[in-house]
Amino acid sequence: MVNKEVLYQKINIIEDNLKKLEELASLPEQDFLSKFYYIESAKYLLQISIEAMLDIANHIIARRNYGTPKTYAESFIILVEKGILPGDKKNTFVRMAKFRNRIVHLYHQVDDKEVHRIVKVSLDDFRDFINAVTTDL
Predict the structure, then answer these.
(1) pLDDT at residue 137, rounded to an integer
(2) Model confidence over 69-100: pLDDT tens digits?
(3) What's CA 122's distance to the chain center, in Å?
(4) Which helix (H) or strand (E) holds 56?
(5) 3: how many CB neighbours lie within 10 A of its CB?
């Protein structure tokens, strides 16, 4: 059985981070890119938010005996296959998992403009994830 308390703790982390990311999203691109602390804050908040999403996905997968994902991206794919996450968002969630991996392992390959673009246009993807998993609970 899924532990809702655990899931809502992770959801709260994502929601708190989204508020901070929205503040960063309000900055003009030039301002955002001119200050290392804006860029690094955004990277960290995105990483932690995606980690929380993966924790939620893996908790659901484990508790419902959906198998064992071999990659972070596969965690999201399994939830799409089980009808928990919307199929039209599969590629988005897979890209998020891959972005998390790049921040953690290939940090030198993460472009600051890409971080700014994600903060500006992709925060609703986190909300879509939250809405999907809470609807399923």
Answers:
(1) 85
(2) 999 999 999 999 999 999 999 999 999 999 99
(3) 10
(4) helix 36-63
(5) 11
CB 121 within 8 A of CB 29: no
Q: What contacts 21, CB < 8 A, 6 or more positions away?
A: 42, 45, 46, 49, 119, 123
**Exposure b/e, 20-35, CB count within 10 A at least 16 = b:** ebeebbebeeeebeee
- Which pTM value belongs to this model? 0.97
Two structure tokens written together for 95: 């890209």
**Distance from C-alpha of 58 to C-alpha of 35, rounded to nearest angstrom:** 35
Written as six digits, the tokens of 42 are 């955004």
DSSP secondary structure letters along 8-49? HHHHHHHHHHHHHHHHHHTS-HHHHHH-HHHHHHHHHHHHHH
Instruction: Read off the pLDDT of residues 15-72 as tens digits, 9 standing for 90 and up.
Output: 999 999 999 999 999 999 999 999 999 999 999 999 999 999 999 999 999 999 999 9
Enumerate domains of the chain plus CATH numbers: 4-136 (1.20.120.580)
Residue type, 28: P
Cβ partners under 8 Å of residue 55, min gap 6: 10
